[in-house]
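Case study: Dihydrofolate synthase/folylpolyglutamate synthase.
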Amino acid sequence: MTTPDALQARLLDLHPKRIDLSLGRIRRLLAALGDPQKRLPPTIHVAGTNGKGSTIAFMRAILEAAGFGVHVYTSPHLVDFRERIRLAAPGGGKLASDPELAEALAAIEKANAGAPITFFEATTAAALKMFAERPADALLLEVGLGGRFDATNVIETPACAVIAPISIDHVEFLGDTLEKIAFEKAGIIKPGAPVVVSAQADEALVVVERQAARLRAPFVLYGQDFLCRAERGRLVYEDALGLLDLPLPRLPGRHQVVNAGTAIAALRQCWPNLSFASFERGVVTAHWPGRLQNIGRGQLAALAPEGAELWLDGGHNQAGGRALAEAMADFEEKSPRPLILLYGGLRSKDAGAFLRHFVGLAAEVHALPVRGDQVGRAPEEVAATAEGLGLKAQAWPAVEEALRALAGRAWPSPPRILIAGSLYLVGEVLAINGTPPE
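Here is what the predicted structure looks like once written out:
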């Protein structure tokens, strides 16, 4: 059998010369496959700029704690493409195996018959085919880019749509204002299907609310229809069904409290009789690699200064920088340490918008390259941006060299090191460290 890598390479060759955001290509392909998107289990469709993956991680953990079989589709992957497709299975699901993936991709290649298709469209079709052919109680489906013309938006009647926090990102495809971006994200809302909306800026909220009203979709809003907060070391959640007094999430950061609350709100829309025990267990077992992940072991951990904390996060835009800075400030309040930021971003991202949140917080910034010269912003350029903000900065050719240099210095107390930026960088760090995502 042809390997998944070979099949993916052949599908990449069919990528259109110009990307026009539309659903025509994937609908044609799905029709040739017998429309698997019409034979899926109850589906929760998740769009937004930040927090999509974490929200899905909470929903998956809660549903699996309740004994549900759950299919999951997320993107991008960090180390291995198979991370994108999780199939329901006894004991909590499993990543798609190489033979399963190869079989699905071969079917996609045959049905597509050499027509232009984007890689994401082809692999989304493969995932939907696998999901339709295997029984499950739920499907958690993450939007890849935007929403309105995203390949996942072939779902006609989701059990629920979720809009995670919206911020400025992917302006070349979605627009350069919150209103324009929110319009694209709100494209996943379907007539009559409830939409659960997380914390939003006013400019985004008015657009999403208008679209829900137009389609008569029940509107469930954070801060109005459901509340969640950290209180005395607990997560307190409230909605019309009542109050849940839960443990704090294992995933650190204030933003994860909101993500957990959004996940709970969506699940209570679809399955209002889920047990308290499933929420209690799910909140503390949910994990999401590369999101404030503590790297305590491995090759890179061994290179860090003795006693240092090493954290890894894929935050890369303005909102991601703000959430990370808040989390680091909370860490500092509980356990003071010098904060050292190692950052690498894409050329398409505003490094200054991310870094400005660390002014007065990070002692130093060490700029790193991102895998692939065609996408990564030069470390020297990032360092200059950081210096322009008043941050002490230095550029490095590799993460290993930056960590060795830090380990070679004398520290009054072991530092707290945060590696952040592009998910390409996060994947590279996990691969070098020998920490495969689960």
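For the exam, be able to explain this: The first strand starts at residue 43 and ends at 47.
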